[in-house]
Amino acid sequence: MTRQGPDGATERPLSALPSPASRLVAFAAICLAGLAGGLIGSSLVELQCDGDCGLPRGIGILGGAVVAAGGMSIVAVLVLRALGEWREITDRGSG
Asked: How wide is the angle at C-alpha 36 spanned by C-alphas 46 and 54, nearest 5°?
């Protein structure tokens, strides 16, 4: 769906998608948070476990990575929505 401006010219189409650069930054932040969560989970198990700790360490890595990446994905979605609303408000104000 395209909009027509006051002079009759068509403007850019309406889209709820954030820019590709914003999506790429959000994806990189989620991956980085997952890596950090995995490292934290691994170190927590390493501090508490003696002997053969392969399975507990793997569970700690997986759990930490999933929790951290999940939390960061929520933050990323909220930031991308805020950017979209900000762009809409500035477009409305300049039009």
From this structure: 30
**Predicted structure pTM score:** 0.78
Query: What span, in angstroms and rounded, lies between the C-alpha atoms of 72 and 86?
Result: 21
pLDDT digits (tens, 9 = 90+) for 22-80: 999 999 999 999 999 999 999 999 999 999 999 999 999 999 999 999 999 999 999 99
